[in-house]
């Protein structure tokens, strides 16, 4: 029996679910959103916001210490309690009143509880007290349930109560010794943060540091982590973990070494939140990532099922998930109204940029900002490329920005089309340089035209001119 009917039901009120619901309501449809924890999702309370708050104060301190005059004015160390308090504020003290008020103002109906699909266009919501409500959708059910930390099957690990990204983001105290398993984005950002907060950090990496980005960027981060006192061990696997009666965690490595710490953070990637959402009722496999077409409609679904954000594995980033949300919200509205669907390449109803133009900033020291393909990925994709590198320290704006500035930029050019397909820059405070590259890639701006986009002097952006000069005209 159906209790309530809406045009669209969104499962999960993370940043992506919220944006899907907002979009369909703006398009004239009704929407309900189902959330089992906090409205705002992982990003607001346990991921993007709190982790960036943990990193920001020490980055500002580093910047001041890199400048004569400012350096002399810094007379103390980082105030850890103040950093944690600012982090708490950025996580809204783990309360979602503000987000709930926003849902209200946007005309979206919130159903609190665990949502499960119970057949085509039907969702059952189970509240904490066990009461259930059955919701029906006229047009679409959108799964935006996100992802959770993946735990490897290392003997003793689960029993040792390891930290996941959630614990690292929300910790109330800083452990004296922290081991980090993994070398990706979470591992390097949290190693940077906790080292700055005073922990003795050991990073245990199976492969290389930040394997997803250009190798020079991972090398710069490794060097600076080591300079900050972090032990970075690459090419090691953790064999077993044990927490003893005193709370000390003992890790045994595959080379026989042992590491003793107070907490161990596992940061080896994500698993989709699809294990208990009723996928079996619509012929899909519980626990799997949801494969979608470019309009975010689930492949092998029932036609009314969509998936956006982390759960479809296209790009596990908030901004990219919200981009998908705009496309999927609009396409649901178009289909509901029988309007034309604009699903051609770069059309309104598709998320084409997911393919080859995903921007990401890693907030380590130095920051890494990258968009599009790495040189290796471009070659693997069969492109005929030319790689152009430039030393970021050799740009007037960088030299002014900080003494001893270290950094590097790379552009990857598709030689057949003479357009940029990849851009990576590593250096202090480079995050906001990235959008220019994203525009160049998405706009497929010809290199000959880029010469007319003149970077202001003396800014770090002048690296664009240096890269073009190195490429030649
Ligand atoms: C430590 C860390 C730092 C990060 N930093 C950044 C960053 O700086 N920038 C960036 O772009 N990305 C960052 N990310 C990635 C970013 O957090 C995710 O890409 C983003 O949160 C995905 O949004 P989402 O809405 O798809 O999922 P989520 O944010 O995970 O939201 C999903 C929501 O669905 C709810 N839910 C799940 N199952 C059910 C169910 N059955 N019923 C009801 N509700 C359900 C959950 O409770 C949750 O609220 C970071 C990730 C981590 C782990
Ligand atoms: N600033 C940001 O934009 C930001 C920050 C944090 C996280 N995120 C997103 O969150 C997602 C999750 O981040 P993450 O760091 O957990 O994953 P990741 O995919 O970035 O890195 C995982 C790392 O773990 C290693 N690994 C995998 N399996 C392993 C195993 N069994 N043992 C040891 N090492 C193993 C991999 O080689 C890789 O280095 C990413 O997709 C990332 O984009 C984004």
UniProtKB/TrEMBL annotation:
Gene3D superfamilies: 3.30.390.30, FAD/NAD(P)-binding domain. Residues 358-464 form the Pyridine nucleotide-disulphide oxidoreductase dimerisation domain. Keywords: FAD, Flavoprotein, NAD. InterPro entries: Class-I_Pyr_Nuc-Dis_Oxidored, FAD/NAD-bd_sf, FAD/NAD-binding_dom, FAD/NAD-linked_Rdtase_dimer_sf, Pyr_nuc-diS_OxRdtase, Pyr_nucl-diS_OxRdtase_dimer. Pfam families: Pyr_redox_2 (PF07992), Pyr_redox_dim (PF02852). It comes from the Bacteria. Residues 6-320 form the FAD/NAD(P)-binding domain. Transmembrane segments: none annotated. Its cofactor is FAD. PANTHER family: DIHYDROLIPOYL DEHYDROGENASE, MITOCHONDRIAL, DISULFIDE OXIDOREDUCTASE. Belongs to the class-I pyridine nucleotide-disulfide oxidoreductase family. This is NAD(P)/FAD-dependent oxidoreductase. It comes from Actinoplanes sichuanensis.
């Amino acid at each position: 029996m159906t209790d309530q009917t809406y045009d669209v039901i969104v499962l999960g009120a993370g940043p992506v679910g919220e944006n899907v619901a907002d979009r369909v309501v703006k398009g004239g449809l009704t929407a309900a959103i189902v959330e089992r924890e906090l409205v705002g999702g992982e990003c607001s309370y346990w991921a993007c916001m709190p982790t960036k708050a943990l990193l920001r104060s020490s980055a500002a301190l580093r910047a001041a210490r890199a400048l004569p005059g400012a350096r002399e004015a810094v007379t103390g160390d980082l105030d850890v309690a103040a950093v944690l308090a600012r982090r708490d504020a950025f996580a809204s003290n783990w309360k979602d009143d503000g987000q709930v008020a926003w849902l209200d103002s946007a005309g979206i109906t919130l159903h609190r509880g665990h949502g499960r699909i119970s057949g085509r266009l039907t969702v059952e919501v189970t509240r904490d007290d066990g009461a259930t409500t059955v919701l029906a959708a006229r047009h679409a059910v959108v799964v935006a349930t996100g992802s959770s930390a993946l735990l490897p099957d290392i003997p003793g690990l689960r029993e040792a109560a390891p930290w996941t990204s959630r614990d690292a983001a929300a910790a109330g105290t800083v452990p004296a010794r922290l081991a980090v398993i993994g070398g990706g984005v979470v591992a390097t950002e949290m190693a940077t943060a906790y080292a700055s907060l005073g922990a003795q950090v050991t990073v245990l990496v199976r492969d290389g540091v930040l394997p997803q980005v250009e190798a020079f960027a991972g090398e710069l981060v490794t060097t600076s982590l080591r300079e900050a006192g972090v032990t970075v061990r690459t090419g090691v696997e953790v064999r077993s973990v044990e927490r003893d009666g005193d709370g000390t965690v003992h890790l045994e490595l595959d080379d026989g070494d042992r590491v003793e710490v107070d907490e161990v953070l596992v940061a080896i990637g994500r698993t989709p939140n699809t294990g208990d959402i009723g996928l079996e009722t619509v012929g899909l496999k519980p626990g799997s990532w949801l494969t979608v077409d470019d309009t975010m409609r689930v492949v092998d679904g029932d036609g009314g099922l969509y998936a956006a954000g982390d759960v479809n594995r296209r790009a596990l980033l908030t901004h990219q998930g919200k981009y998908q949300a705009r496309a999927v919200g609009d396409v649901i509205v178009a289909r509901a109204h029988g309007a034309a669907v604009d699903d051609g390449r770069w059309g309104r109803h598709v998320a084409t940029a997911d393919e080859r133009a995903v921007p990401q900033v890693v907030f380590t020291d130095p920051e890494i900002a990258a968009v599009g393909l790495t040189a290796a990925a471009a070659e693997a994709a069969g492109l005929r490329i030319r790689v152009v590198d430039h030393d970021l320290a050799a740009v007037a704006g960088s030299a002014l920005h900080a003494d001893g500035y270290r950094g590097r930029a790379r552009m990857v050019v598709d030689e057949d089309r003479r357009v940029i397909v990849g851009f990576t820059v590593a250096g202090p405070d480079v995050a906001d340089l990235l959008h220019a590259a994203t525009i160049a890639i998405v706009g497929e701006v010809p290199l000959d035209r880029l010469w007319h986009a003149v970077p202001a002097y003396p800014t770090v952006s002048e690296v664009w001119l240096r890269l073009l000069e190195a490429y030649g005209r």
